[in-house]
Amino acid sequence: MDAKHNIVDDLKWTTVTSKAYRKTAPRIYAQAYKVTKNAILDAADSFTNAGGAGGIRYYDRLHTAEKEGKLWSFPFFTDQVRGFTNSWGDTYVGSTNGSQSIGTELLKNVAEVGGAIDSTIAQANAALEGKPGALFEPPKFYSYGVSDSDAALEFTLINTDEEEDWRDNYDTIKELIKINRFSRTDGFVAKPPVLWDITIPGYRRIRWASCGVTISLLGRRELREEIIVPEGYRVALNFTSLYTEPMEFMEQFK
Questions:
Q1: What's the per-residue H, E or C state across 163-201?
Q2: Average pLDDT of 64-83?
Q3: Is 215 exposed, middle or buried (0-12, 13-18, 19+ CB in 10 A)?
Q4: Could you state, in order of their start, the residue ranges of all structural domains in the chain?
Q5: Residue 235 and residue 61: Cα distance in Å, rounded?
Q6: Which residues pair with 241 in a beta bridge?
Q7: Which of residues 17 and 176 earns the better pLDDT score?
Q8: Is residue 157 packed enough to be buried (19+ CB in 10 Å), middle (13-18) or exposed (0-12)?
Q9: If you ran DSSP here, which 8-state letter would residue 106 be given?
Q10: pLDDT single digits (tens) 209-222
Q11: Is the pLDDT of residue 39 over 60?
């Protein structure tokens, strides 16, 4: 049987049968992408196209990939929809405030010489004036580190409602495991797992994410068709953003 990509509408993650409830149930949309080009070649292209399109289009071109299967729809009842921090670092390593330097080598070299001179003069003036010391603080650069929290979700798939439910649930779980693992195609050649395009309606867009999968067996279990089948599955998915997410990603939400 085929995996069910629209889990919210098609699988038994709830005992509620109302179509109206399922239609309005909160969800995450996720599209898997199969990488079709070596990352080293994509890196070379990204430098060539660095001055091209901005916003989301810039991130679209970071990976050469094609859609893998249909759009997924996962139940989403997690409280935290996003979290991030901002970091600013020093323009040179000789700063007195102890922050990490992120300036270029040229800027650091120039600033270190100028900073050393300024600091020496400031310390000398402080000594002449009978003051305990001097402090020189440079301007800071924004640090573009990836600080966005993961998009995490959990849901339960129920195998005890109707006899055929377990097979649909199992096939879907099997598909999630397969596409999120690398494949060894020929000798030392390996293909990476899929990348994901994630949307949390109204709050977040992740253009490229990796996915961690945890599957737990719940309740009594038995062997069917050489498969261990429990009363239910607990599915936990953790989507990790590969890149810093700019403000333009929020512009799709009106």
A1: CCHHHHHHHHHHHHHHHCCCEEEECCEEECCCEEEEEEC
A2: 95
A3: middle
A4: 7-85+147-250, 87-143
A5: 31
A6: 209
A7: 176
A8: buried
A9: H
A10: 999 999 999 999 99
A11: yes
